[in-house]
Amino acid sequence: MIPMDFYRGRRLRTSAAMRELVREHAVTANDLIMLYFVIDTEDENFKKEIPSMPGQYQLSLKQLELKVAEAVDNGLKALMLFGIPASKDELGSGAYDDDGIIQKATRRLKARWPELIVMADTCLCEYTSHGHCGMVQNQCVLNDPTLNLLARTAVSQARAGADVIAPSDMMDGRVAAIRQALDDEGFTDVPIMSYAVKYASAFYGPFRQAAEGAPKFGDRKTYQMDPPNAREAMREAAADLEEGADILMVKPGQPYLDIVRLVRDNFDTPVAAYQVSGEYAMIKAAALNGWIDEQAVVMESLVGFKRAGADLILSYFTEDVLKVLK
């Protein structure tokens, strides 16, 4: 005879309505941030698909506006901009040029959608001729001299109307330098979403093709975090929070869900997770080969971020997910 006093979890799975009633985590449009690559070009019709990221593009200002318009209609609340300048130099001057590509894109988007949250990636790698995230001398990335350039970049982006400044460089002390510069220029209400825990990951390959920002020598392991380290992540997050960060980001996302949970459990501040280009490319490749159900896998992966403790998710799938949610 079968005992009748065992746990019956299936009672709460009997129908879709029942499962939805007791569901613990869900992804909404409020959780998602779309990422766009905008290029400084005179060709208004420029729209180039990124080979390693099917469905993602380098966009002219006009094409960016068209893409954002469709996404806003589907419920887009926030986006992040990455700029590709017309020319590069040793100091990445295009990053802090008031007429730079991020600045122009921000002004254009905010003029049309004042309530849309425009986040600006604050870094130099896309603008430097050597491809590193800071000033270089004798093939060494200089930390402290870079801080002034990052601060200038942040102020220029805020002046253009950016709602959130997002430093991704991983220089020590950059959050403090940026916070001080923003405050000095009257941008005390502009928050900083720090790439607080950013690993030197193999999952960034497609992004470097998309942003045309691969380093011309060496790698970024002297300033991005070593992937095996977790305790270090807590030190980095604590430092950025103390320096004035308002949101802490973990990047990459899926391989570092344990780190997302550590940050969530240790810091009472909004936590963001970045589903990076390599994660996107793998899901896309498997889906294009018919090996997985793309929509189901994407939604499951995003719920995983929420379950790990992420309040915000940066994902290249955002546009597609908004259509599903709508």
TrEMBL record:
Cross-referenced InterPro entries: ALAD, ALAD_AS, Aldolase_TIM
Highest taxon listed in the record's lineage: Bacteria
Entry's Gene Ontology cellular component terms: cytosol
Residues holding 5-aminolevulinate 2: S277, Y316
Pfam family, one: ALAD
Positions of Mg(2+) binding: E236
Gene3D superfamilies: Aldolase class I
Keyword Lyase: yes
Root EC class: lyase
Catalytic reaction annotation: 2 5-aminolevulinate = porphobilinogen + 2 H2O + H(+)
Binding residues for Zn(2+): C123, C125, C133
Active site: K198, K251
Family statement drawn from the similarity comment of this UniProt entry: Belongs to the ALAD family.
Subunit structure as annotated in this protein's UniProt entry: Homooctamer.
Name by which UniProt lists this protein: Delta-aminolevulinic acid dehydratase
